[in-house]
Specification:
alpha+beta; Metallo-depent_PP-like; binds fe (ii) ion; 11 helices
């Protein structure tokens, strides 16, 4: 009797599964066109014959095409198409060349199959892959799609009359750069060195997991030499047999110019046209757009870009690096793109330098990449490196410096040893002590985690103390003009400051700015609570001159007399804060706030909690209790924000939970 019951139960299951699949037996999905030329081109994905459409039906993107169903690179719900309820529709997607074909699959997913243990980075459930309805043909990137160079980006080298160019292609064959002052006469040529990294070089998951890992292709690196000062050069990369990139151009660095123009920010990330396993950064689109506007407005003047850590936010999902480099190519192929390392490029469980006081500071934020993509995809000046202590190649691009115009730029690593006695500390000391102030009266230091911030980041309290203890004396003694930091996703300007005390002149009291506002959106808010208008969550002490929740970037302009930094807001592309530092030492703090934008400073400054008489210990340490309360409150606000947004019709809404 038991046997019979089991038999009928199995028959019933078989009937249900046959019925379920036959109900959608006619479902089809097609693509147009079947080949794209280059990253950014759009494919239209059309489907039809989907019976009893559900708003959980979804479209998965797969590359390479043979990937298992749960190894999508991203997904979209079919209900994005206005006709989805009729069982057909279409979605257009601009795609990035991953040097491998794509396919697109449609799945049915039901409420009962939602698995809250199987979540993305924002705690949204990942879609179920049990019921495949249809799969498209393969989409390729045209003839030479694998071999065509993409992701072109420039950087300075240690020699003034050169420019490095890097790019990616799908095979390891010979490639070159050809360049010259005339667009139709690229008479100079240099061979590029190709290199790659492998899955076993990754230190942890998801970077070394089958879901996170994709073939990164070959990374090419070469240098254009003997460039004339301040001249526009045209160039293209590739080879005769595999094809050449489009012709790009840049203005060579001018060793005799006293002018400096730089666009500087941290924590930008990139946007993807699909939902994926981790949060991506839609605001980065506007940041790139406005910087491109500024570069074009410069005409024949050279400039540079500084992205000071938390670069792509790939965190082990390797195709996000491809998305990032495709997104920055319009700016990074025109001006040198300089970087320093952030926690999201590096931090991993066995990282070699993790002193006791940093046990909570350094975690797993690198997603197992342990600095490998960062070290190979960029090649900054200098030759700093640290072993990873694992199979992974050494971490590069940690600390270096160069001059441009009237400014000496120094980049440092807050993720590796920076304390007295270490090689980085010795480099910083020697570098700052040997700056030629006749040539470069201004010195700008950049690193990822801030020495000063009024935001949360409770877990970084100790690293701030150590930076004040070990690095600040070097900055003060050597008359650093400006210190720029990221990590906190806000713009904040401090007074000229030393030992947490406002000074009057930048020699002795560098101006500190936090500029991590280029794209990543997670950050607890500062505003006072409605029922406690006098008590903002993160109080703004007198040392903080201006802070805002707007996204954007900073623009640095200098000559021998004056260095000016402006904050440009992404919402309107206008300047909203400016500080000027004169060669004489004077600091002119001139906020140029837009009257259209309500300033948080106006609210918070009147509600400052920390009085000067209480300043025997660091104010940010005293604020820690309040900050913890703020984190909790921020989380609660995030939760309710999520609830509010969820009712607006979108299927899933991200919870702002990163790094909590
Ligand atoms: Fe960070």
């Amino acid at each position: 009797m038991i046997v019979n019951f089991s038999f009928f139960f199995l028959l019933l299951l078989l009937f249900i599964s046959v019925f379920a699949s036959s109900a959608n037996a006619k479902a089809t999905v097609s693509i147009s066109p079947k080949a794209l030329n280059r990253s950014g081109d759009t494919v239209v994905i059309q489907w039809s014959g989907v019976d009893s459409p559900s708003d959980l039906d979804w479209l998965g993107l797969y590359s390479p095409p043979e990937s298992p169903s749960d190894h999508f690179i991203g997904y979209k719900f079919l209900n994005e198409s206005s006709t989805w309820k009729s069982g057909f529709g279409s979605i257009s997607l601009p795609l990035t060349n991953l040097r491998s074909n794509y396919t697109f699959r449609i799945f049915r997913w039901s409420e009962s199959e939602i698995d809250m243990k199987h979540q993305d980075h924002d705690q949204n459930p990942l879609p179920g892959t049990k019921h495949l309805l249809a799969e498209s043909e393969q989409l390729s990137f045209g003839s030479g799609g694998v071999g065509k160079p993409e992701q072109i980006h420039l950087s300075f080298t240690d020699k003034v009359n050169t420019m490095r160019v890097m790019f990616v292609a799908g095979d390891g064959e010979e490639r070159f750069v050809r360049y010259g002052e005339e667009k139709d006469l690229l008479g100079n040529s240099a061979a590029a060195r190709g290199m790659r990294y492998e899955r076993e070089h990754m230190c942890d998951s998801p970077a070394n997991s089958t879901i996170g890992w994709r073939d990164p292709g070959w990374i090419y690196d070469t240098v254009m030499k003997n460039l004339n000062n301040g001249v526009r050069y045209y160039y293209q990369v590739g080879s005769e047999s595999k094809g050449w990139s489009e012709i790009r151009s840049f203005i060579a660095r001018d060793a005799y110019s006293e002018e400096t123009v730089a666009f500087m920010f941290g924590d930008m990330g990139c946007a993807t046209p699909y939902t994926t396993f981790i949060r991506t950064q839609d605001e980065s689109i506007a940041t790139v757009k406005w910087i491109l506007r500024d570069i074009e407005a410069l005409g024949e003047k050279p400039a540079l870009i500084s992205h000071i850590g938390d670069i792509s936010y790939a965190r082990g999902y390797s195709w996000v690096w491809d998305e990032f480099f495709a997104q920055i190519e319009p700016i990074a192929s025109k001006v040198p793109y300089h970087v320093c390392i952030g926690n999201h490029e590096y931090d991993f469980p066995t990282q070699p330098w993790k002193p006791d006081w940093a046990a909570t500071t350094y975690g797993t934020d690198g997603g197992g990449e342990c600095g490998v993509p960062y070290s190979l995809k960029f090649n900054m000046p200098g030759n700093s490196s640290e072993p990873t202590g694992m199979k992974a190649p050494p971490t590069r691009n940690l600390y270096y410096s160069y001059d441009m115009g009237s400014v000496h730029f120094l980049y440092i690593s807050t993720e590796t040893n920076f304390v007295k006695g270490g090689s980085q500390y010795e480099f910083i000391k020697r570098d700052l002590e040997t700056v030629n102030r006749q040539k470069t009266p201004f010195v700008v230091v950049q690193g990822h985690r801030p020495m000063y911030t009024t935001s949360n980041e409770v877990r970084d309290t100790m690293i701030r103390q150590k930076m004040v203890e070990h690095l600040e004396p070097l900055f003060v003694d050597n008359n650093v003009t400006l210190a720029l930091w990221g990590h906190v996703h806000r713009y904040e300007r401090f007074c000229p400051i030393s030992n947490n005390t406002c000074g009057k002149q930048w020699p002795g009291s560098p101006v500190h700015l936090v500029i991590g506002m280029a794209g990543q959106d997670w950050q607890p808010i500062w505003q006072p609570r409605p029922n406690h208008p006098d008590v903002p969550i993160f109080p703004q002490p007198e040392q903080s001159m201006y802070r805002t929740g707007e996204f954007g970037y900073t623009r640095l302009v200098a000559n021998k007399e004056k260095l000016t930094v402006s904050f440009v807001g992404n919402h309107d592309g206008e300047v909203h804060d400016t500080v000027e530092m004169l060669a004489s030492g004077e600091v002119i703090s001139g906020s140029k706030e837009s009257t259209k934008i309500p300033s948080l400073k106006t609210v918070s400054a009147s509600a400052t909690l920390i009085r000067k008489s209480e300043s025997n210990t660091l104010w940010y340490v005293k604020g820690a209790g309040l900050m913890v309360a703020g984190v909790v409150l921020g989380f609660i606000i995030g939760f309710f924000t999520r609830g509010k947004k969820s009712s607006s019709g979108n299927r899933w809404i991200p919870v702002k939970n990163e790094e909590t």
